[in-house]
Amino acid sequence: MLSGNYLILKKNLESVIDPKRIITNPLQLLAYGTDASFYRLIPKIVVQVHNEEEAIEVIRQCHQLNIAITYRAAGTSLSGQAISDSVLMVATHKWRKYSIMEDGMRIRLQPGIVGSRANIFLTPYRRKIGPDPASINAAMIGGIASNNASGMCCGTAQNSYQTIADIRIVLYDGTILDTANKESKKLFKEKHPEIIQEIEQIRDEIKANEQLSERIKSKYKIKNTTGYSINSFVDFEDPFEIIKHLMIGAEGTLAFISDITYHTVEDYKYKACTLTVFDTVETACQAVPLLRESPVAAVELLDRASIRSVENDPEAPGYFKALPETACMLLIDCQANSQKELTDKQDAVRQAIVAIPTLRPYEFTSDPKEYNFNWKARKGLLSSVGGLRRTGTTCLIEDVAFPISSLAKACVAIQELFKKYEYKDAVLFGHSLEGNLHLNFSQDFSDPEEVQRYADMMDELAYIVVDQFDGSLKAEHGTGRNMAPFVEKEWGETAYRLMIRIKNTFDPKNLINPGVIINDDPKAHLKDLKPLPPAHEIVDKCMECGFCEPNCVAEGLTLSPRQRIVIAREIS
Questions:
Q1: Where are the alpha helices (DSSP H) in 353-479?
Q2: Can you tell me the distance from the alpha carbon of 21 to that of 19, in angstroms, rounded to the nearest whole number?
Q3: CA-CA distance, 196 to 200, in Å (whole number)?
């Protein structure tokens, strides 16, 4: 039952938004209380906004009434960025407008467009958006930009930070800033001179601190989404360019993204890939620096446990099951605009790693069935591993990055970590060209001893990543709730204090997605854990990622498949 300011908010919003889209029904609130992460918060109100005017009103009212608000698109967030125990503002339906500019060289997108749909729009122009996360068939543009999601082929050169052209945002008080519009920037300067001044002040402080500046540059040579994109203060001088790039990876904690314009990238006509098998992960990692200097589009690492999770697929090659326990695989992809160019690139790749022994001969394939299986095996690892976990456990995925020179030793250290804490089903895979590893394992959160095991493992993981190898605790999935307590550990006090200033500048009351990125609770990552009790053999394997929702004809009309599963588990 709503009371106090929440009741006032509901009544105020009903005068401008269809009451049917202001959700307070307990069952529906519970259904919206989950995303793809292992956290759950039940909102008090869910508001489905259909346009910018409605979004402005919700944001403005929440600010005036001191009510926390979280912005959400698809809810495929893996680190708990898309949930709230206050107001959840959902911008999906009706947020699917787009415009293609300069013959496909740029595309303007609203936040409710699924990433793969944006690429379909660009197909006639042989272009695509830069970010290519494995979740691109479900993740929406709002989340892709807010998490600075990258993926297999985009690396650090074609992520949202590097390919953003312009952005339109709504601030805490309803103020709009459209960086593509000179008049909008002029009005913003007049209305919020304090924001411009603080951005310029932080910029000048960072550039005057040579040690910090060099530290920031070094940190972004590999994938890094831990904390705010403070590399913007080093990369740019103009405060609007800094603001534009700060919004990328801010996880909806600074402003609401109303639309974003991307510089697009080339979508090559010809593609081929191969699976190269090595005797150990160390041998595979020896090949990575050589491949990085060769004409590859992507190099994906899969350890033996990853391969085991897909070896029973009807399309899987028979040799998968015969591989030794120490084996490691690299999925290598080449792309070109002519068949000759593609062949030349394949030859260059072979030559680059000719001195590295492989367990099996390898051949590149462009056969659609083989090519698609190879990539399905890699992109589907999250769900395939999640589907194998013991009933009642949660599928977790951590996301770290290391300097390429340390990748082999880091892989071994993480495998030893899993052995120490007896995570026997843990798998290791990721984007090896960027030193980016995903750690996928199952966890029982119903037992306090198991929660403590997870806490101890996370503390040691932070030590390995930060202290031992100077890597990134979050490479591309965003800081979220599970790494917020570790941001200061990775960045140090000086940089972290600047991040707090950034948060305070754009969110003076700390009402926008609180607890995400900036969180002073050292145990925040161990709270609000999502229960996954046994419910039915059909649904017990679901990890509530939401990948099904874009394909469901009922989504938006009634409960989606993910939401029905949430309810079924609650009933059980």
A1: 368-379, 381-387, 407-420, 448-462
A2: 5
A3: 6
Closest alpha carbon to 503 in 93, 227, 285? 227
| CA nearest to 47, candidates 24, 65, 15, 74 | 24
Give 539's pLDDT tier (boundaries 50, 70, 90). confident
| Per-residue model confidence as pLDDT tens digits over 495-530 | 999 999 999 999 999 999 999 999 999 999 999 999
User: Is it the case that residue 152 has pLDDT exceeding 90?
Assistant: no
Which tokens hold the place of 84? 């709230």
- Element spanning 6, H or E: helix 4-13
Q: Position of tokens 């309810």?
A: 567
User: Backbone phi, then psi, for 527, in 5-degree steps?
Assistant: -115, 160
- pLDDT for 386 equals 77
185-188-191 Cα angle (round to 5): 155
Question: Do 275 and 362 contact (CB within 8 A), yes or no?
Answer: yes
The answer to whether 530 touches 40, Cβ cutoff 8 Å, is yes
**C-alpha to C-alpha distance for 323 and 311, rounded to whole angstroms:** 10
- What do you get for the CA distance between the two ends of the chain, in Å? 24
Q: How many CB atoms lie within 10 A of CB 539?
A: 18
Compute the half-sphere exposure of residue 565: CA atoms within 13 Å on the CB side of its CA.
24
